[in-house]
UniProtKB/TrEMBL annotation:
It comes from Zizania palustris. The keyword Signal applies. GO terms for molecular function: alpha,alpha-trehalase activity. This is Alpha,alpha-trehalose glucohydrolase. The lineage of its organism: Eukaryota, Viridiplantae, Streptophyta, Embryophyta, Tracheophyta. The keyword Signal applies. Keywords: Signal. InterPro entries: Glyco_hydro_37 (IPR001661). Pfam families: Trehalase.
Length: 450
């Protein structure tokens, strides 16, 4: 039995956002094995980060957008571009020389996507906002509706033909881009896009967007933060099951549901893996599994490398810088990049501690995912799977109530994991160590055992 109504009755209501938590404890940065390897970074990204660094030197920091440079498609082979970059005059690299280099060796940013008229677009679809009767409001809504034509794209053929020249990732279906400097698909942005497309009765486009994310889960084992090669080290708030549910409730398309279902199981496994899962023992001896954000990266983010490096410059050791880079990437995985919610000191970015926080909203998203999967499994006749996920949702609900509910404030709060020594260790059960165990004396003090 579900602790809440069945998911088809509440597919929006479980999204909970909480205010900034005033916390006093946190844990040291988690060590994530095998992340941030320079050897593992694609050669194209390493080249583009060199371009990014040289451009900053030539153009200066004013209005400098580091993302622009790692989004540029190459107009020649990487070896030729690299050789040309190495030959640029130093140390006085001028703006004119840099701009000429960019113009010669790169295609325009954004040219790796091409316009693609959505085939299911209608100027005023039947059943569009039936309760909006005010003429002015309705005219405005139709203007917003018309923007779908401007934001719809497909991946350019050259991305598939020559992937070594592009950081954008090939996708099978149409996309809707956020716009401005964000020229690619993003995970949790897509949830709001799908909701809007359903209002516009553009069901096929909504399915395309969702199946692009399904493709990511199939290929990478999780849904990427965004459709760029530099986003393969992290995800974003897990809302894929919500998109699938919303589309199914609007269309009743069982073929679509069955197509997406295996990828939902893959995504769930990702969020339940050792990287994200934290086992918490309460003062009654009960172990609760909850989730956190934790990127698989401890280097400057390629799309913001010059910014990350500037913040890290105040840190004196390589280890401290790697911990900071890891926390920055983990914060980007949260979708809240950036907020004082994740900082020990709201005025100092280097105090980010996102991977040491058990967020209310993330665990609510995953609770809803568990309920959605249980519902879908029941629909397609996978009764054992349905029962398993129903039990998992009950367990997470109890974990949220036990660990994240603050009875004094009468609200759910993010839970900060403290550093070693900031509380009494109640157990060191070696059988639990593989779960990255923390122990509690009643939702007040935790110790992280590493």
């Amino acid at each position: 039995m579900f602790p809440f109504p069945h998911p088809h009755q509440l597919h929006v209501s479980l999204v909970i956002f909480v205010p900034v938590v005033c916390a006093i404890h946190m844990a040291p940065a988690a060590a994530v094995a095998g992340v941030g390897s320079e050897e593992g970074a694609p050669a194209l990204l390493r080249l583009l980060q060199r371009v990014q660094s040289e451009a900053l030197r030539a153009l200066g920091p004013r209005d400098f957008d580091p993302k622009f440079y790692v989004d540029l498609p190459l107009a020649a082979d990487a070896s030729a571009v690299g050789a040309a970059l190495s030959s640029l005059t130093r140390p006085a690299l001028s703006r004119e020389v840099m701009e000429a280099f960019i113009s010669r060796y790169f295609a325009p940013a954004g040219s790796d996507l091409v316009a693609a008229d959505p085939l299911d677009f209608e100027d005023e679809p039947r059943g569009f906002l039936p309760k909006v009767e005010n003429a002015e409001a309705r005219a405005w809504a139709l203007e917003v509706h018309a923007l779908w034509k401007d934001l719809a794209r497909r991946v350019a053929p050259d991305v598939v033909a020559r992937p070594d020249r592009h950081t954008i990732l090939p996708l099978p279906g149409r996309v809707v881009v956020p716009g401005s400097r964000f020229r690619e698909v993003y995970y949790w942005d897509s949830y709001w896009v799908v909701r809007g497309l359903l209002v516009s009765k553009m069901y096929d486009t909504a399915k395309d967007i969702t199946l692009n994310l399904v493709y990511f889960a199939e290929k990478y084992g999780f849904v990427l933060n965004g459709a760029r090669s530099y986003y393969t080290n992290r995800s974003q708030p897990p809302l894929l099951s919500s998109m699938v549910l919303d589309i199914y409730m609007a269309t009743g398309d069982m073929v679509f549901l069955k197509r997406a279902f295996p990828s939902l199981l893959k995504e769930y496994s990702f969020w339940m893996s050792d990287i994200h899962n934290v086992a918490i023992m309460d003062n009654h001896g009960r172990v609760h599994n909850l989730s956190r954000y934790q990127a698989m990266w401890n280097k400057p983010r390629p799309e913001s490398a010059t910014i990350d490096e500037e913040f890290a410059s105040k840190l004196t050791s390589t280890a401290a810088k790697e911990k900071f880079y890891h926390q920055v990437a983990s914060t980007a995985e949260s979708g809240w990049d950036f907020s004082s919610r994740w900082m020990r000191d709201s005025t100092d970015m280097t105090t980010l501690a996102t991977s040491h926080i058990i967020p209310v909203d993330l665990n609510t998203f995953i609770l809803k995912m568990e309920q959605d999967i249980a519902f879908f499994a029941e629909l397609i006749g996978e009764n054992t799977v349905s029962e398993s996920f129903s039990e998992a949702s009950n367990a997470r609900y109890n974990a949220i109530e036990s660990v994240l509910w603050n009875s004094d404030m009468e609200q759910w709060l993010d839970y900060w994991l403290p550093t070693d020594g900031n509380g009494q260790v109640l157990t060191k059960d070696i059988s639990l160590m593989s779960y990255n165990v923390i122990v509690s004396n009643g939702a007040n003090t935790l110790i992280l055992l590493t």
